[in-house]
User: What shape does this take?
Amino acid sequence: MTIDATRIILKPVITEKTTALKEDQRTVCFAVRRDANKSEIKRAVEVLFKVKVASVRTQNKVGKTRRVGRNQGPTGDWKKAYVTLREGEKMIEYFEAV
Assistant: This one.
C-alpha cells in the first residue's frame, strides 16, 4: 500500500535549531504522519522536492498538557523527521514559488 507523498509530509518545522541544522549540516526537519516509516519519508521528500536523500532520523514527540483559562487538555502526539540531503544537492527552500 502506497500513500501519497503530500499526506506523509505534513509541514516543515522551523525553529532556531532546525535553521542552524539546515545551514550547517544540510539537514531539514519536517512534521510527518505518526505511522510513516523512514523509507516512506525518504521517498516522499525525493518525490516532492526532487532531491536525493542521504539519511532520515525520526523522533516521536509526546503531547503535553496545556491550559487555556480554566480548561486544560492534552496536545496531540506527533512525529518529527530530520532529513539529511546528499552532497551536491540543492537545499530545500520552504517558501519558494512553484
In short: The first strand starts at residue 9 and ends at 12. Residues 5-65+73-85 form a domain with the Alpha-Beta Plaits fold (CATH 3.30.70.330).
